[in-house]
Amino acid sequence: MRFRFLHAADLHLDTPFSGLGQTSPEIAERLRDASLDAFDALVELAITRDVAFVLLAGDIYDGAERGVRAQLRFRRGLERLSQRGIPTLVVHGNHDPLDGWSAVRRWPERVHVFGPEPGTKEVHRDGERLATVYGVSYPRREVSENLALGLAERAREGGGGGLRIGLLHCTVGAQTEHAPYSPCTLDDLRAAGMDYWALGHIHRHQVLSERDPCVVYPGNLQGRSPKPSEQGAKGAVLVEADESGILGVEFVALDRARFVGLEVDVGEIEDLAALHAALGAAANEAAAAHAGRGLLLRATLTGRGPLHADLRRPGTLAELRRQLRDDAAAREPFVWWDAIEDATLATLDLDAIRARGDFAAEVLARADALAREPERRAAFLAAALEPLHARRRWTSEIEFPTEQELLEAGAALAIELLEAEGE
Fold this sequence. Notes:
This protein has 3 domains: 3-255, Purple Acid Phosphatase, chain A, domain 2 (4-Layer Sandwich), CATH 3.60.21; 256-347, no CATH class; 357-423, no CATH class. It has 12 helices and 17 strands. By secondary structure, the protein is an alpha/beta fold.
């Protein structure tokens, strides 16, 4: 029998967005509604796509002291699913552990919430057993033990039938953007004998393994901040399956507002009026690319050009941001300029500096010599960067510049600082 199920996690219902609230209470309130509206869209998707069951892998709420409106909205959605004959299976994570306060003590008929010990729940449809789900909830916020091992042991005890699914809020491998709650390895998950691992906790959508077993993070349902892991489309995954196993995984965007990062090179922009126009055009492009969603934009200005000095003037960026907010005030869905960051550099005539014979010229001469000698350059950069590497764990997503690019950037920064001192 072919069927589909829906897997979501990290709903963080009624996230307060306190930082934005200090700047724009109206935008913050719309963002709080966005998390709830995204959940309503999840329920509607489950109904319209006729899923056999729904899996929710933790962090339903944003904190242990859960808001009343979030809990009531959540229960109402589960009631809709139950009335349509769709079971919902839930585990709790570090944001909403079982020891947190609850305004709801009785759930709809087809809702199953896993407890603090590894448990199982069979899912049937039309008299046929489709799957056995193995799940466990966090009893408290701080969980450092590997809960995947307990689910694997429970699965080895036998029983159940159909598709074997692990439902867990955890950290698989190195995920430096999130605290390592219930850490485990991909090998731990592979050894458990599951067909599908429905995971939560990591806010980026990731398919860690496509088969034997399929291991998936759907990401969070609604972005919560400008952090890289919170940017872009957010939603859930629809999973196609039959008695042979997993047939396909489809990501479906369900968010109602998105955090979007923009990068604008100022090298060919002659003045602030032209920059204002360029940022407005970038906002229009973002609105077209993310149609139907409210947008929170954070722009980074890069490159070298005459605008660098203008952008360093006190108040320039704040005034530019204020004007862009005014320009977008009537847009619907909303567009909110969260921040504009200056990463530009001054225009430098390096040949002229080399000819001067001063300290700045000596710095350039040293950089030029290192550029011609790869072994010395490598040793120099290794020594310079060693303290930084010792204090930071890098993620695999970081794309490092080449040694020559690092050398050129460092020399340019040193010259810029020296030139600024002499002004």
